Amino acid sequence: MVGHGFMGAAHSQGWRVAPRFFDLPARPEMAVLVGRNPDTAAAAAEKWGWAETSTDWRSAVTRDDIDVVDIVTPGHSHAEIAIAALDAGKHVLCEKPLANTAEEAEQMAAAAARAAANGIFAMVGFTYRRVPAATFARDLVAAGTIGEIRQVRAAYLQDWLVDPTVPLAWRLQKDLAGSGALGDIGAHAIDLAEFITGQRLTSVSGVMETFVTERPLLASSSGLSGTASAERGAVTVDDVALFTGRFDGGALGSFEASRMSTGRKNALRIEVAGSLGAVSFDLEDLNALGYYDRAAPADRQGFTRVQVTEPEHPYISAWWPAGHLLGYEHGFTHQARDFVEAIMAGSQPKPSFADGLHVQQVLAAVERSAATGSAWTPTLENA
Amino acid sequence: MVGHGFMGAAHSQGWRVAPRFFDLPARPEMAVLVGRNPDTAAAAAEKWGWAETSTDWRSAVTRDDIDVVDIVTPGHSHAEIAIAALDAGKHVLCEKPLANTAEEAEQMAAAAARAAANGIFAMVGFTYRRVPAATFARDLVAAGTIGEIRQVRAAYLQDWLVDPTVPLAWRLQKDLAGSGALGDIGAHAIDLAEFITGQRLTSVSGVMETFVTERPLLASSSGLSGTASAERGAVTVDDVALFTGRFDGGALGSFEASRMSTGRKNALRIEVAGSLGAVSFDLEDLNALGYYDRAAPADRQGFTRVQVTEPEHPYISAWWPAGHLLGYEHGFTHQARDFVEAIMAGSQPKPSFADGLHVQQVLAAVERSAATGSAWTPTLENA
Amino acid sequence: MVGHGFMGAAHSQGWRVAPRFFDLPARPEMAVLVGRNPDTAAAAAEKWGWAETSTDWRSAVTRDDIDVVDIVTPGHSHAEIAIAALDAGKHVLCEKPLANTAEEAEQMAAAAARAAANGIFAMVGFTYRRVPAATFARDLVAAGTIGEIRQVRAAYLQDWLVDPTVPLAWRLQKDLAGSGALGDIGAHAIDLAEFITGQRLTSVSGVMETFVTERPLLASSSGLSGTASAERGAVTVDDVALFTGRFDGGALGSFEASRMSTGRKNALRIEVAGSLGAVSFDLEDLNALGYYDRAAPADRQGFTRVQVTEPEHPYISAWWPAGHLLGYEHGFTHQARDFVEAIMAGSQPKPSFADGLHVQQVLAAVERSAATGSAWTPTLENA
Amino acid sequence: MVGHGFMGAAHSQGWRVAPRFFDLPARPEMAVLVGRNPDTAAAAAEKWGWAETSTDWRSAVTRDDIDVVDIVTPGHSHAEIAIAALDAGKHVLCEKPLANTAEEAEQMAAAAARAAANGIFAMVGFTYRRVPAATFARDLVAAGTIGEIRQVRAAYLQDWLVDPTVPLAWRLQKDLAGSGALGDIGAHAIDLAEFITGQRLTSVSGVMETFVTERPLLASSSGLSGTASAERGAVTVDDVALFTGRFDGGALGSFEASRMSTGRKNALRIEVAGSLGAVSFDLEDLNALGYYDRAAPADRQGFTRVQVTEPEHPYISAWWPAGHLLGYEHGFTHQARDFVEAIMAGSQPKPSFADGLHVQQVLAAVERSAATGSAWTPTLENA
Question: Which residues form the GFO/IDH/MocA-like oxidoreductase domain (chains A, B, C, D) (predicted)?
Fold first, then answer.
């Protein structure tokens, strides 16, 4: 595993726990943790249970005894590491967004395509797909339960930037993070909308906004929680991105990504309305799915709050009895399970780098649209 | 109409509005308002649209041009007025609880039985039955939709007595009010539970408690909102009553009536669990009914939040398009409608004084049980 | 009152009930109901309590004994009637949207300005402002409680057009209705957003969509619920409108108006996020306001569900004790109260025709933007 | 660890994960898993990561290289194992309920008292205390935030016995399980109520009921999910227990434990009402706490939905950023953390066996009360 921020903890938990609840065709061994600083890397490895550490990702990702490379670094370094790993014949799991630019993402998708020809696979880490309620929403849609899809309303709402004293961490700098709310959390909304609907965004019209344009510099560059210094710097990414989009299946979507939605902490919400019904999901209430069935008797229609904690639901039979809730990191365990199963079966795990590239292209199209007065912009530049 | 407190406003609104939305077989005329104080009665009559006022209820309820007597005075005066009106051949609508004691209630029920033999009918005002969602719950249960009923959980929660400065109004004095939370709001919970289940409580085990035992006296006796004086007096009724009960159909119920449930303003809640499903209602969310269907596919079960605002729902087609909410006083309009329809059809409107007597007997049984260490007590003294 | 559809019932209820709960400086008399068909007008007048009927609006609105003209006809007839009434020296209450085109609305606003110079006033009927929770949201914002406003998320969601058998009523025809979801319900979202924030939309970028493009013709033209014929016609208005907008105070808004949001019946939702807090409202839960306070202790922050049913809340002290809910039509009673109070005080009731014109200009800007690839469009054509 | 049912998986996860997120003073080693059947024990050990297995609990719990014994067997075997382990100088963590009878529990508490004199400690596993929102509720109450406590409403609602085909597993047999809903889930409600309030139940009045009195026998005895046979046997425990109780601090409580609450899967709910505020919790929504503050401005009072996922909240800073949810088994991780910390500090971990004994005495008092017509029964037999 390369990197050891907050995502490192989550991925480590996924690798550790997956074999304890699921019958995996191979047991993951947590071999090497890579970090730039040997001391902090060693501390992380000790805490999370990695056998060794390294400060040299290039040599680590080509070691003979390594089969899988898990990349949890900031987005600007994804491409170089992933391509090197794939070219070295390692399966790759890469955190989202795939890259900071569509160009890098294209190179990564190309490397993944080359590797796949040799049975080496790459996957991008949109774990929210693997929240059981989200997977179940996809299943309902795929089964035609809600009919022809007309509307998608997706939003990822946070509020940690409402506080003007939050310092200028890497996530607020365009050269490191690519974009702000759009790429960080909007990417999740896009992936989840496409996953649940089974449709792809073909064009978008968007607007982006930065409300707090200057913030205190970080005294050190270590993560979100570093100490603020007295100096200030310019925020170069968006606080909020709003866009509408058209899907290839005819649906119309509205999207919002905000780190300025006061009072909303981690609300990834999606509602999909179809000709026969609707589904509604909120990550702040992740064990439930709202389901509306137009075929129910007229006097009994309404959104049913399905607790997605029954053995009939995706992933659940491996866990607890009915009614016992799962949490945020269970998605990482499910991701580890699905990744290992696909790799051992010699099949492409989903979402692929091509899927990740597509999300990147949507992000890029939103940025171009926002830069050109919200003009409708195809998600493929040459489309 | 005899009396003109808060209930007088609600009843007046019912009589006024019912013919504007429902096609009634006869149009109510708001003839005489009776009150002890001529000035306040005149002010109320002017405001609420009554043609005349009187300070003499005895002569008012026997006037030839009066067909219906509506009683909204405190409970201790219900019996005398209602019996006089019935004996004078007037149809009677009497606010709940029917009386302050089971003895008075028995006399009233007897008078109602005598009158009914002559086509003169009496009804008691448990209006929450006529909230569309509550009526719909009853319909679902009556149709067997939730199967054999096992459990009933009913609570009426308010918090206006948490504040120790609330003065000692008539509702806190046993000689005027009969009991406290038990008779005032517990009576609603009992009636609603029996209405929805179609079963009657046969025995109860209860406990009652007064947490704030002294309160400032009222400088004047005018309602809940009067000015407090410096003197204090003893609270002689319960703040909270808890009881369990057995129904004649085999169900087991838990009941709570509280004016000390901090943060709950007017939460009359009931959930009925059966072998095939469940229904759940809360007066603080009165346009919705929770409905659970065990026959739904295993992965789609959950409580459906039915907005009881569709034309297929009870009472709704007379009002607004789907999705437009009703409020508290609509129940009084429905009550006026149902009362007029039954009277004009020459049939007994429900709930009858016999039903009201039964509720009174349950209240009395809870008081006896509470006085004897929560011993199980039949709701009929000679049962 | 000119017109007698669903809005006629609501307005009648407002005039009838307002003086029974509020102390008005003048008592409204429900004099003349105007309709094209004498029989249906007479039936409506009898049901709703109007003294007379007329089929000639021109003579009715100029009668000497008429002081106020209330217009509840479809939007295409608003301008002619309102201008005639204002020119005849009658105060006017006109249902929203003010008109079907910005041009008509401009003429109406001009007529209102002329009349106001003579102490004759006009108001447009955006009643949702007068839902107590919405008014209270405005009060909190105006007091600075949530600080500088950054984001507004407003949506009005219905689903009655999901059913493809719903016939082609006047609301689905551009020549009669002006626009579809945008003008009918989007107008409410715009007004409510501007009312609560105290800011005005200066430019918009939008998209509109019609998912069901053909529907059965109505056998008769009487309202939404008429009988469908075998023939079909083209739907000429939008099922869904999405737009983003910028406010003059710096806020960014996202708006949605949909009659295709499966499972949502009458969900006018708005959330306003500011630097110090947020407010959140949903018309399907209209007695509550969500309020988030960033100044609360860090471990106790969260959205507080305020039941806006306390005497301290707007309009409530006239109604019931704390915790007793209001319904849809109470807004019309509040509107009647506010209108009468302003007229008798000789002051301009709000929202004025100028406010209504502004909403119309926003609607027109959204249509122009949608017609030009979602280009950002000023809400004033010459801005 | 002795036993390896559903609780074994949860405890194993706790031991495994605790050192990965918390800085523990000692790292737990998962040494020996004890089970009656060597094959199933070995499979469980392999899956959950225990180094060895044994079929002889007596020798296992006295091994020199064992410091801690974790007991997750059915309740009837707790006493023998725990006493042996404590007498052998091993720290003990024992699943709830402490035992099947108050007599056994007394012996266990005595053994724990003897051991504690030698620095050896015992704890009982009421993990729901360690759900952060529950711990936070306790903190608020302990700080006096909600004032003097008046009412406690606690319920643990499940519905898995509504289905009459659920077979007669050990949990439905009095000789193995002690009691039914009362001991299994009612025990949690009692512990949580006492934990949050800091008060102890001194007397109770209860009723118990079995609605489905016969069920198919299990073909094999392995857990809840075994195969049903054609034969049927008598259910000898309660499906539902209802009781009221008085606390030593003056509060009055109502309690319900039900496996027949149709539609409720795992709803451990508690609301505590005090003179200054209230807290409300539901295990089906375990990341949130409802908090009502009577000191808030009158127009802003209401239950605040606090997402207990901020770094200021108990246990949270070890986990994810704000707004990321925890699940059911996190309580077991917190339990492992708290247990290890207390043991290493040489202090008594809470809840102690004495606390567990007290819960057992409450359960016994409820059973005695139910057997004597709901007579009020002290929770100490000689009290």
Answer: 137-279
Q: Is B318 on the interface with C (CB under 8 A)?
A: no
| Strand pairing class (A122-125; A91-95) | parallel
Judge whether A340 and A18 are in contact, CB under 8 Å. yes
**CATH class of the structural domain C148-274+360-369:** alpha beta
> What contacts A321, CB < 8 A, 6 or more positions away?
D6, D160, D224, D266
Listed residue (A241, A170, A152, A188) closest to A356, CA to CA: A188
| CB–CB contact A162 C294 (8 Å) | yes
CA–CA distances in Å: residue A39 to residues A71, A75, A302, D163:
19, 23, 55, 57
Contact criterion met (CB < 8 Å) for D261 and B151: yes
Q: Does D314 touch chain C (CB under 8 A)?
A: no
Interface test with D, best of B145, B149, B151 (most D CBs within 10 A): B151
Q: Which partners does chain A have (≥3 C-beta pairs < 8 Å)?
A: B, C, D
Q: Helix and strand tally (H, E) in chain B?
A: 11, 16
Contact A193, A152 (CB under 8 A): yes
CB contact under 8 A, D305 and C305: yes
The residue ranges of DSSP E strands in chain D, in sequence order, are: 32-34, 52-54, 68-71, 91-95, 122-125, 149-157, 201-209, 214-218, 228-234, 240-247, 252-258, 267-274, 277-282, 288-293, 303-307, 377-378
Neighbours of B36 (CB within 10 A): 12
* D291 in contact with chain C, both atoms CB, cutoff 8 A: yes
Same fold, C6-128 and C148-274+360-369: no
Q: Do A305 and B305 touch (CB under 8 A)?
A: yes
Which CATH topology does D148-274+361-369 take?
Dihydrodipicolinate Reductase; domain 2 (3.30.360)
CA D198 and chain centroid, separation: 17
User: Which of C288, C299, C306 is the closest to D312 by Cβ?
Assistant: C299
Q: How far apart are CA A314 and CA A333, in angstroms?
A: 13
Residue pair D208/D367 in contact (Cβ under 8 Å)? The answer is yes
CB contact under 8 A, D304 and C302: yes
- Can you point out the beta strands (E) in chain B? 32-34, 52-54, 68-71, 91-95, 122-125, 149-157, 201-209, 214-218, 228-234, 240-247, 252-258, 267-274, 277-282, 288-293, 303-307, 377-378
What is chain D's pLDDT, residue by residue, as a tens digit (383 residues)? 999 888 999 999 999 999 999 999 999 999 999 999 999 999 999 999 999 999 999 999 999 999 999 999 988 899 999 999 999 999 999 999 899 888 999 999 999 999 999 999 999 999 999 999 999 999 999 999 999 999 999 999 999 999 999 999 888 988 888 889 999 999 999 999 999 999 999 999 999 999 999 999 987 655 455 677 889 999 999 999 999 999 999 999 999 999 999 999 999 999 999 999 999 999 999 999 999 999 999 999 999 999 999 999 999 999 999 999 999 999 999 999 999 999 999 999 999 999 999 999 999 999 999 999 999 999 986 54
Q: What is the CATH number of domain B129-349+360-370?
A: 3.30.360.10
Looking at domain B6-128, its CATH superfamily turns out to be: NAD(P)-binding Rossmann-like Domain (3.40.50.720)
Amino acid at C128: Y
- Give the 3-state secondary structure of residue D382: coil
Interface confidence (ipTM) of the complex? 0.94
**B273 and D301: CB-CB below 8 Å?**
no
Segments making up each domain of chain C, as ranges: 6-128, 148-274+360-369
**Cα separation of D169 and D189, whole Å?**
23
- Chain A nearest C-alpha distance from C253 (Å): 9
How many C-beta atoms lie closer than 10 Å to residue B341's C-beta? 17
Spell out which residues of chain C touch residue A302, defining contact as CB-CB under 8 Å: 263
> Among B141, B146, B280, B300, which would you mutate to test the A interface (most chain A Cβ atoms within 10 Å of its Cβ)?
B300
